[in-house]
Predict the 3D structure of the following.
Amino acid sequence: MKKKNVLLIDPHKLYLETVASIIEKENDLAVTGKFQSAGDALHALHQKQGEKPDVVIIDADMNEETPAGINHAAYITRKYRGIAVIVQSRSKLASFPLQARKANISGFVFSDCSNQVLLKAVRTVAAGKSYYAGEVEDVVSRYCEFIQSPNDQKMFLTRTETDILKWKSHGFHDNEVAENMRMGKPVFELHWRNILRKFDSVNPLEIVRMAAANGCFEPPLTHSW
């Protein structure tokens, strides 16, 4: 069986190497290129350097000037018909997958997804199908429900963000919340920055009060989970 070739584009070397090691362990997949710059990756594709990839995985949040990573993904999708593109993002914003779907990009996953989800995404898009991970679909669905219900005053939060605020409302500190939710500190900090942005505040007490006023803690936290 011929292996499916995967090209990786991500500005973070550690993440790049981690994803490459996951893919290389699979008998039906191979990594044919690793780039920290989208420009370098596009140059290699233009010059037909190396084996043509079947799948490209690109970071939505490329640390470059314009165009952003998701625009690179759209360009590859338009330019190279035989290559499926998966966008991965550290930011759990509905706008990114909505843009990706509008641009006919094949797949979308969040950076903290499981190995199983990542590999399923690769194999699905390599087979010519679309794959938007379950958590991605959940974020988009909740966002769409929010904007279609103008009378609903509840703040739009992801499930993870809501759970973080529930723990915070019970007086747990950041490290304790991260430990209770079994997430690394960098992942927790990413979610917390999103919460700060959504509430336009850096005061945890004020954020918890605003969340409670907006009904974010319904149903109430129970100790069974």
User: Anything to note?
Assistant: The mean pLDDT is 85. The longest strand covers residues 29-35. The first helix runs from residue 13 to 24. The CA atoms of residues 103 and 220 lie 39 Å apart.
